[in-house]
Design brief:
The chain is mainly alpha-helical. It has a domain at 12-46 and 70-104. It has three helices and no strands. The longest helix is centred in the first third of the chain and has 32 residues, at 12-43. The protein is flat and about 75 Å long.
Length: 105
């Protein structure tokens, strides 16, 4: 039997998973940095008045969102989508309170 010398045993699966996560995080970071760099490079090329937003835009968007949520069908779907994970969590908590059967041991 090999002595561990205070090191944590890490399986190959864990190493592979950590490698995938680090590649994903570094790729996402590179994408964000690239987007920021592109925005900074083109910020000087856009004239000051080229991107004007009407003052009624925010109120129009909020009115559209409120119209969607006043529809009973959409509101029901949103409530079901929000409640479903909570129901499963609650069921898991209740099942965890029950004693395990002897046959499962």
């Amino acid at each position: 039997m090999r002595k561990n010398k205070g090191r944590i045993n890490v399986t190959q699966h864990t190493k592979n998973m950590m490698r995938k996560i680090s590649l994903w995080v570094s790729g996402a970071g590179a994408a964000v940095i690239g987007l920021i760099g592109a925005a900074a490079a083109h910020a000087q090329a856009i004239p000051a008045g080229a991107l004007s937003v009407p003052t009624s835009t925010v109120s129009n968007l909020l009115a559209s969102v409120s119209n969607v949520f006043t529809d009973p069908g959409v509101l029901g779907l949103v409530i079901i989508a929000a409640a479903l994970p909570i129901v499963f969590w609650f069921a898991r908590q209740v099942i965890g309170l029950l004693p395990k059967s002897r046959a499962a041991r």
